[in-house]
Amino acid sequence: MAVLAMTYIGGGEYSIAELAAAARTDTGNMTREVARLERAAVLRSRRIGRTKLVEANRSAPFYRALSELVTITLGPAHVLAEELAGVEGVEQAEVFGSWAARMLGEPGPAPADIDLLVVGRPDRDDLHDAAARASARLGREVNTVVVAPQRWQAGDDGFLADIRSRPRVPVRPQGEDSR
């Protein structure tokens, strides 16, 4: 799953070692997994010297549909939910900005980064570590904005009013049911 998330969401080329690190596996297993996905035309690769670079197969007839499915099921909201699950003090988290807009169907270019709104009082080091892990898994930088609950609820801040007026995608910690 990490392979699909990185190649279809990250949008770049990744070495077998980078993919293995993101999937928390060894390069032998990753090499076999990449070979299976290449045979299925999901991925394609090229060699530069001894390094094999892997990317999504954008010429596959199913690319767009698979890309949308991967973004919804393994994309930023899912990965961030997993990484934030252990961070104390997060009352609410949402993806906002261009990623949220694309996830909700607004046309536009692929976003370069992911904007994450965190409402609460999390430990900044724990939050930074979670965002860094999510960045590595997604192949995109995660920029966090932390807002105290009182400030979020007050609604008198222009920046927060702008965030509220634009698309947002909730991030639910793993194990939390969707109500």
Write the layout of secondary structure elements.
Blueprint: H1 2-10, E1 14-15, H2 16-23, H3 27-39, E2 43-48, E3 51-56, H4 63-74, H5 76-84, E4 90-96, H6 98-103, E5 113-120, H7 124-138, E6 141-147, H8 149-154, H9 158-165, E7 168-170
Parallel strand pairs: 5-6
Antiparallel strand pairs: 1-3, 2-3, 4-5, 4-7
Helix pairs in contact: 1-4, 2-3, 4-5, 5-7
Explain what you see.
The chain has 179 residues and is an alpha+beta fold. It has two domains: 2-65, Arc Repressor Mutant, subunit A; 75-170, Beta Polymerase, domain 2 (2-Layer Sandwich), CATH 3.30.460.10. Helices cover 48% and strands 22% of the residues. It is built from nine helices and seven strands. It has helices at 2-10, 16-23, 27-39, 63-74, 76-84, 98-103, 124-138, 149-154, 158-165; strands at residues 14-15, 43-48, 51-56, 90-96, 113-120, 141-147, 168-170. A four-stranded mixed sheet has the order 6-5-4-7. Strands 1-3-2 form a three-stranded antiparallel sheet. A hairpin with a 2-residue loop joins strand 2 and strand 3 (51-56). The longest helix is centred in the last third of the chain and has 15 residues, at 124-138. The radius of gyration is 18 Å and the shape is globular. The model is unreliable at 175-179 (pLDDT under 50).
Lateral arrangement of strands in the main beta sheet: 6-5-4-7
Q: Indicate the CATH architecture of the largest domain.
A: 2-Layer Sandwich
**How much of the polypeptide forms β-strand, as a percent range?**
15-25%
**SSE order, one letter for each helix or strand:** HEHHEEHHEHEHEHHE
CATH class category name of the largest domain: Alpha Beta
Number of helical stretches of at least 4 residues = 9
The SS-based structural class is alpha+beta
Q: Radius of gyration in whole Å, from Cα? A: 18 Å
Describe the sheet with the most strands: 4 strands, mixed
CATH superfamily of the largest domain, by name, is Beta Polymerase, domain 2
Low-confidence stretches: 175-179
Secondary structure: number of strands: 7
Helix coverage percent of residues?
40-55%
End-to-end distance: 26 Å
Q: What's the average pLDDT?
A: 89
Question: Which outline best applies?
Answer: globular
The domain tally reads 2
CATH topology of the largest domain: Beta Polymerase, domain 2
GO molecular function: transferase activity
Keywords: Transferase
Protein name: Putative nucleotidyltransferase
Organism: Planomonospora venezuelensis
